[in-house]
Design a protein that fits this description.
single chain; about 325 residues; SH3 type barrels; Porin; 6-stranded mixed beta sheet; about 60% strand
Length: about 325
């Protein structure tokens, strides 16, 4: 039996077709499909030899699924040998030529969308906290409610906040305090500088002044922006008015707002407001606060809160009330 070159070619071709099988498949986000041979994979992407497009490097962020074709090895086929015929040895393979550098087309990950521009819509939040105890000998209750309303456009930002505290000890009122603040910030395009107008109103049943109102203006500067840290500074001047004593006090204002985004669920916020007296050097008021928030719902609109607010007033004498007022609280906050 003669073994011809044509017989060997047919056997080699059938073996190759049996081994190749179906191509590898990459399904992109959006439904597009690439078919070819995967030559490399990494955490960053997949490299595919496409029959028409050549070599393509596809970023992982663009890939929905990757399916590799199952390669089935071709069965070994030996050419028939006639009786008494010499066995035909396969010719030695010629050395493969040096691999040429294949040009690679890169399909990068999609760029993140730009942040949405503020549209001036209002956002609100409400916080509630209640602690207390009641027995035959003692009765202590501590109640806090706080709310905020915020809006932002491309040219300005408005923030209104209010906090109310009420506390009893042995059925006697020991704290009845309301603090309302309004802040209007004017933003400058392509600048970290801004200007602000701030107004305050405070009521405290247990202070000699009982009610205090103030107004301040000045510049602000966003020292840090973004995450995990943002820091804003303000400095200005104004005056506060106390009644029923009917007295004006010219003051400076130095303030900061620091926000630390710990992770996707929790934040730590710090705020400071210092009001030095312009006419009486060494006299001042200061409000320091520290708040922690952690998301309790999947959307993050329900949060657990805990915080401290400390207010010190150097004007207050021992006979007139409390010069240092420390408040510790915890509760639940809802954004809507």
């Amino acid at each position: 039996m003669k073994i011809t070159l044509a017989t060997l070619a047919i056997l080699a071709t059938s073996s190759l077709a049996y081994a190749i099988g179906e191509p590898d498949t990459i399904v992109l986000v959006g439904g597009d499909v690439l078919r070819g041979t995967i030559v490399a994979e990494s955490e960053a992407g997949v490299t595919l030899d496409h029959p028409a497009l050549g070599r393509i490097e596809v970023a992982r962020a663009r890939i929905a699924t990757v399916t590799k074709a199952q390669v089935v090895p071709a069965p070994a086929v030996e050419p028939p040998v006639a009786d008494g015929a010499a066995v035909v040895q396969p010719a030695a393979e010629a050395p493969a030529p040096a691999a040429e550098k294949v040009p690679v087309a890169v399909l990068p990950a999609p760029a993140p969308p730009p942040p949405a521009k503020p549209d001036g819509s209002w956002k609100f939040s409400l916080s509630l906290g209640l602690t207390g105890s009641d027995s035959d000998n003692t009765s202590n209750w501590n109640f806090r409610v706080a709310g905020s309303a915020k809006r932002e456009s491309e040219v300005d930002r408005t923030t209104i906040t209010a906090e109310y505290y009420f506390q009893t000890a042995n059925s006697v009122n020991t704290d009845n305090n309301l603090l309302v603040q309004g802040l209007e910030e004017f933003l400058f395009r392509d600048s970290k500088w801004e200007a602000f107008v701030q107004g305050n109103y405070q009521y405290d049943e247990f202070q000699d002044w009982e009610q205090r109102a103030g107004a301040y203006v000045g510049p602000g500067y966003r020292l840090l922006e973004g995450e995990p840290l943002s820091l804003k500074l303000r400095a200005g001047a104004g005056a506060s008015y106390e009644f029923p004593s009917s007295s004006w006090t010219p003051e400076l204002l130095f303030a900061d707002e620091l926000v630390w985004t710990i992770d996707e669920r929790s934040k730590l916020k710090q705020g400071l407001e210092l009001y030095p007296d312009i006419e009486n050097f060494g006299e001042y008021r200061i409000i320091v606060r520290l708040d922690y928030e952690i998301a309790l719902s999947e959307k993050g609109d329900v949060k657990g809160t805990a915080g401290v607010r400390d207010e010190y007033d150097s004007y207050v004498e021992a006979s007139q009330g409390t010069s240092n007022d420390l408040k510790v609280y915890a509760g639940v906050k809802v954004d809507f």
